[in-house]
Amino acid sequence: MLGILARTMVKAGMVKPSGLVKPVSVTRITGRYLAHQEGLPKLPVPPLKQTCDRYLAALDPIVDPEELNHTRHLLEEFQKPGGVGERLQKGLEQRAKKMENWLSDWWLQTAYLDYRMPVVIHSSPGVVLPRMVFNDRQGQMRSDQCGFRYHRNETLPVEYLGGKPLCMNQYYQVLSSCRIPGTKRDTVVNYALDKRPPTHITVVHNFQFFVLDVYNSDSTPLTVDQIYLQLEKIWNSSLQSNKEPIGILTSNHRNSWGKAYNNLIKDKTNKESVRAIQKSIFTVCLDAALPRASDDMYRTRAGVQMLHGGGSRWNSGNRWFDKTLQFIIGEDGTCGLIYEHAPAEGPPIVSLIDHVVEYTKKSEMVRTPMVPLRMPQKLRFNITPEIKKDIEEAKQNMNIMVHDLDIKVNVFSHFGKDFPKSQKMSPDAFIQVALQLAYYRIYKRCCPTYESASLRMFRLGRTDTIRSTSVDSARFVKAMDDPAKHNTEKVALLDKAIKAHRAYTDMAIRGQAIDRHLLGLKLQAIEDLAALPEIFMDTSYAVALHFNLSTSQVPAKTDCVMCFGPVVPDGYGVCYNPMDTHINFAVSAFNSCQDTNAARLAQGLEDSLVDMKNLLEQTPKARL
Fold first, then answer.
1. Binding residues for CoA
2. Is 253 marked active-site?
3. What angle do CA 561, 564, 567 make, to 5 degrees?
4. Binding site members
5. Locate the Choline/carnitine acyltransferase domain: which residues (predicted)?
6. What's this model's pTM, rounded to 2 decimal places?
7. Closest Cα partner for 155 from 16, 59, 36?
8. What is the pLDDT of residues 82-116, one digit of tens each?
């Protein structure tokens, strides 16, 4: 295990701090990256009437007619010339002129740093990778000189979408960064801004943290062999798990952790140890094996391990959940990662994974220096009775969360993105409409649905919402199982639903969706210290933001899948990676809600996908 881990780290160039660990602030970045960033357009503020009209259309399938009519009147009042809507819109437009991105700071604060629920399950996604097979001690060795060398001076290859360049800023936030808890609001730090960027990673085994320098004294990166030997030293010096799981503190409610954090770092030794973890390029978690699972349950168990570690008895204390990037390697070959969501979305993370996996397939021999390496430094913590109490509280809360999470990770093997493409349909839209059908079949109603849309076409862009529930998707799901409807009509409705989703997606990535604009208008009102407009206190607004389905497509070349928890107590979290001939799915729910069941929705989704395929194949001439 250690040998393959070492080879992965070196081959991917992950030990090269001159790579991704670069400045956060665009204004401080020089060279090609800055030139690229300055060439990107600013995020637009959509027209007020357009957003209000589209908001009403989005409400149509999810609120009753009486409530919809009430909201229509509120919106008419809101849009009156010289009224509150016009004033807030002008305020937003002024903000957009002054700032690089009118939304990004607000979004970071409201979506992440002000959010007080634990990051575990509620915020931080996990990624399940194919199981490692451990054959030899270390496998091939190769130099990391080919790794991330093209990341020097912020020269990562620019990504494009539809021929347009994308903002690359998130890539420079992932390494050497960490979330810092506060009693009311968190912060994020990136130590790559230091004059001397970090040159170490942290490794945690049996709840014990170590600093592993990944550079030799002559500034050359360690070879595979050297990293293997250092990991072996760590492993052998931490075989006993009788230490307090200090890392489990990071899993607690953010206010509780903020208070415990302030108490923890009063001690100088503790403060230095915590700082070493925060400054590290990333963390490697060497996990104990979870109880064996059958082959069909392996992916689900791996999802559990990536999301929360299995509880205080297993690996939940073998983490520092505030760390942006943590690679997880189990004794049984289970592997993946978990990342703290504040600095970046999923695509940069899976791009990094794809890069790692590709580099591990290549081989190149390199000579290992004979210079002996010093023992990796073990980080010490002085545990007072108060800290011990905080740890026990965090253990209890973690175990409650672990027992409450209901998750199903599976592979849909009937077809992949190849089939929708053969029908000239968007694979993502096809899956989203199938999800609408699955939910409707179980609950006999449509629900607010969130799908993440990238705003990286704009400078410092993060995300907006694709509202997958539309008037057209509602018409299709109601017709699909209606025996009075002919297949030709069903196919026409399916076609229309998929085109509507595609149109909303295009609108969202162009910065013309409604959710972030409405949020901006609300926050502008709060900033102006004005009374909150009635549209934001309306029942419809609360319903619209209660996402029973929180979904994301995170496509990767690697045969992996991302997983995350629901965003509401009676909801589901659904993530998927469509491959050519199969689709990887992760569905989550909470056991505390009697109305939700992850396995039932996962099965319903499979059935819906198969039924939609059969419908199209049975009526080939009905396509419009």
1. 417, 421-428, 502, 553
2. no
3. 145
4. 417, 421-428, 450, 452, 454, 463, 502, 553
5. 43-606
6. 0.89
7. 36
8. 999 999 999 999 999 999 999 999 999 999 999 99
